[in-house]
Amino acid sequence: MLDSIAIVLPFILTSALLPRTLSFCKKRSTLAGGGLVVLVATTSLLLAVAASFKFPIPQLPIITTVSLLVFGLMIAHSGWQQDTKNRAPWRYMAINILAVGGSLIFLPQIINDVPLWVDRMVLAGLWLTLIQTYRLMDKVDGYIPVTTIIIAIGLSIIAKVVVLPALVIAGCCIGFIRFNRPKALLEVGYVGSSWIGFMLGGLFILAIASGTNTWSLITLALLPIADIITTLIITILKTGKVNITANNLWYHRALDLGMTHAQVLWRVSKINFLLFLLAIFGYVAHTSLYTLLFASFILAVVAGRIKWLEG
């Protein structure tokens, strides 16, 4: 692991410092979609550069890297149009489906005991859900980059096959946090949030395909996953409709209780770091299912406290 970090450290430093040279953005724009230049372009460029070198660490096949970058930029462009031109939601979703479907052509089968089309349908549904989850997370300043940093570093530790792209993404989010921390000078926007959700989804699939413990991976990203799944279930039970808005998610309900963006971000960061430690412990100690159950209990307590504060 130390060898891997030493090799990718120049990319992490470059990606963390490069946005500093783009600081003109904070003076000229506070539009949603600032993530296009500062986050998406920086990370995509560095991922392409990193993929072109042969490092003595596990690396993704070139075709896999290229497919993720190409279809990721397709999603980013769709998000940019949604941010700046307010395109119809069906157009945005159609492009997401097309990008996910196209990427799955180049990714291995995960569920081996079912027909390939079933595996593709399940993965596509989960991948699109993660993209949607990230899209809704942009309502709290700093939430997306901080969460992504923790998840990506965790991925680099427990899934060596994705160590290079995971750490490059983490480094770029470190660079972007100076623009997106409370009070945000630039928002991640649909362009950045959809792109990060897409890239992380691809890395999770590759990690599972490489034999990485699935329970540890779920624990790592449990906060956003549990937030959207429980909200979806409650919404369906109450209204009979599949209609999730940011207002129903835990972090937005915390804002409605009077917390500031900084207070919510601090609490989210502590929870995500705790989940990170549990995921690593479960992976190392081979108790990943038990740590996942313990992590789920912690989030149940968090959800219960929000409900109690709401009265």
Question: Could you please describe the fold and organization of this structure?
Answer:
This protein is mainly alpha-helical and 311 residues long. The chain has 14 helices and no strands.
Could you give the distance between the termini? 47 Å
- Total separate domains: 2
Rg from C-alpha positions?
19 Å
General shape:
globular
What is the residue-averaged pLDDT?
A: 82
* Percent range for β-strand residues: under 5%
SSE order, as H and E?
HHHHHHHHHHHHHH
Number of strands: 0
Work out the helix count: 14
List unreliable stretches of 5+ residues.
Answer: 23-30
Instruction: Summarize the biggest pleated sheet.
Output: none
Which descriptors apply to this entry?
single chain, mainly alpha, 2 domains, globular, 311 residues
